[in-house]
Amino acid sequence: MHTELATRLAQMETDLRNGTLDRAALFWLTVFADATASADSVRSDHWVEQGLAAAADIPGLDAANLAPRRDLVTRYNLFRFVRLKDDAEFSGASLADLDWQRKYRVSLRPEFAWDLPELRSWAEARWSELGGVDPQFAALEAVLEKYVGGKSAAHPHPQPLSHEGEGSQSQTPAPSPSEGEGWGEGESSQAPDSLPPRSYLLEILHDAQAIFGGWLPRPAVERIAAALAVPQAEVYGVTEFYEMFYTEPVGRKVVRVCQDAPCGVAGADALLAGLCQHLNIQSGETTADGRTTVEAVRCLGLCDRAPAVLVNHARYAPSDPAAPQMLLDGPPVVPKLRVGGLVKLALSNVGIVDPISLEEYRAQGGLAALRKALHGMTPAQVMQDVKDSKLVGRGGAAFSTGLKWQFAADNPKPRYVICNADESEPGAFKDRVLMDGDPFRIVEGLMLACYAVEAERGFIYVRGEHRRGYERFSNAVHCLEEAGWLGDDIQGSGWSLHIEVRRGAGAYVCGEETALMESIEGKRGFPRLRPPFPTTAGLWERPTVINNVETLAKVPSIIMHGPRWYSALGTPESAGTKLFAVSGSVTRPGVYEVPFGVPLRHLIYDMAGGLREGRRVQAILTGGAAGTFLTAEHLDTPLTFEDFKKVGGTVGAGTVMVFDDSVDLRDVLARIGAFFAHESCGKCYPCQMGTQRQAEILRRIAAGDTRETDAATLIELGQVMTDTSICGLGQAASWAIIDAHRRWPALLTQD
């Protein structure tokens, strides 16, 4: 080989190995070598056509990008280009002036022409070693194969995890649909493991983002779209809808600092400001070294540990506003779990059993209810017990659980059941405590629900920020399968059930049941118009039951001990127990389970520890950001649906945010307004524009700039959103603001 050619190829190899030359440049050299196997030159347009055709079979190779081909031509001075139009010759420095829209005859420089066979051998050898599929894209191909390439497994999920595992990836392949079969069509002929490949889109995007260093490059999105046969625009529609997906590079550490009310009271603003000052960046920016991105985000569901921060998936809560550097260099915070209650049913195992051990769960009576149902009860009997228990939904709507099951069971198979674990509202964290501390109980409750409605597939949809909950559920499903409690012919009962665990990706609206179903189907989480309701036409237009985490956690106890035992707890109109997530100005924020009927004072003072010495209750926001306010005069109100209704309170999902007299309620309202403006999906104009305008006014009021018309404007906005929004987000976005004005008329009108 010519000495100069050998020198230039050696430099190219060095550049390839150290990453300063894209491997696509080596690809184009191999294409040139192949194209000139029977001639000493090739036309430039033929070279490109052959390269694009060959690259189609190499995942992750962006042959359409001109830069690597241009680098090959201009940096190593190997080629001579002759323009066909006028025989003008280009070599050396003039190669930088090439117009790639023109046609050229391409050959090696004359002094290298005799070395073409050796160049071909060199290129093939280096391509074999350094080229091929990029390791990241090879990993992406494995993900795609797992979810859409095989049919042997009914549900992909991660392998068992350690106690504090934060970053595992799913391992098991997923099914593909049968050809010619419509989704959700027919009676029970559809195989239980047949799901549309698109339904795995969010799972694939999560795994792909982890592979590519925290973001989704364009070639990766293109490959995912091709594998799922989904238009690229629709995939990008999904990535742009969900906050946790990034299509531009971010830092190796993404630090998300919560900005909602409980964290705001605990010093979130000072924490964010100190962190940005420490890194010399603004919120939303990445450090120059690419190490850290800082984001101000809405509620992280860690309100009992305020102020809360997520660093990638690791929880730093509570964080010290005076020591922001600990978020970058210190270990994750593991505070003492605060749970309690007078009668603990759903919480009975939390803090007692190892949440990743099926054996420990069974030692506390776990799976006894399921065994009883499978071998001693019909599905109709299980359903009737839940009806007779008077259990109502614990996610906020308080609709009869048994009646919902009956509505679904009255419709044709196949049927689905979903556990809604997308708890995302400010002040709400009870479901997080349950899924972290006792996932097997929730899965058992889901299995009983599936048995009652004769469903053969269930889903658990977990909020994207709750990585630990996702892993705990995935481990629980895996352990139950290994033990023969999930899968085909469970415990010889003749009944089969498969459960899949799915991740959200940062969209509060997906807690709304129809938006959640859209997300499971691999789409943007836009709410659907109702009717039809999910029990008639849910996932893939099939009957679907959607229950909250706490709701399902109550079911095993009801089946085991009977409906009368459960309904005897509480009051005639509010049966059973309820989990309350207490946060804000109390000294022991946490999750407390009580029978309905105890006074609010008992919850706040006896269980949650009351307020700091010298402070008094100013306001109690019940039911979450979409709730209503109570005051100190309501502390002796019984915790029931009927009694709260009398005084204007909201039980909702059991969220209780307490604010003492040191808290600026205008700031609290501004944070509520900002939350709903940020989380509005934008599908309907009343919510999209109304929440933005509401947030603007509340932000101005919090800054001390009030106007005479503010209260009237906010009330009118609220009425319009409540009357005309598609889903509960817009309908309830103004409730706390309007209620605050009712309680404290001067709050929105005076400086």
Topology:
Elements lengths: L2 H16 L4 H13 L5 E3 H12 L10 H10 L3 E5 L5 E2 L13 E5 L7 H15 L4 H15 L51 H11 L6 H11 L3 H10 L11 E6 L2 H5 L2 H12 L12 E6 L11 E3 L2 E3 L9 H4 L9 E3 L16 H6 L4 H9 L2 H10 L12 H9 L6 E6 L8 H8 L1 H15 L3 E6 L4 H16 L15 E6 L9 H8 L23 E5 H13 L1 H5 L9 E8 L5 E6 L4 H8 L9 E6 L5 E3 L10 H7 L7 E6 L4 H15 L5 H18 L7 H15 L3 H5 L2 H9 L8
Parallel strand pairs: 5-6, 9-15, 10-11, 10-13, 11-12, 14-18
Antiparallel strand pairs: 1-4, 2-3, 2-4, 5-7, 7-8, 14-15, 16-17, 16-18
Helix pairs in contact: 2-3, 2-4, 2-5, 6-7, 6-8, 7-8, 8-9, 14-18, 14-21, 15-16, 15-18, 18-21, 25-26, 26-27, 27-29
Q: Main sheet?
A: 6 strands, mixed
Helix content: 40-55%
Strand content: 5-15%
- Average pLDDT: 92
What assembly state would you assign to the polypeptide chains in this entry? single chain
Q: Could you list some keywords that capture this structure?
A:
751 residues; alpha/beta; 12% strand; single chain; 29 helices; 4-stranded antiparallel beta sheet; 6-stranded mixed beta sheet
Describe this structure in words.
There is one protein chain. Strands 9-15-14-18-16-17 form a 6-stranded mixed β-sheet, sandwiched between helices. A 4-stranded antiparallel β-sheet has the order 1-4-2-3. Helix 8 crosses helix 9. The chain has 29 helices and 18 strands. It is an alpha/beta fold and 751 residues long. Helices cover 41% and strands 12% of the residues. Strand 7 (309-311) and strand 8 (314-316) form a beta hairpin.
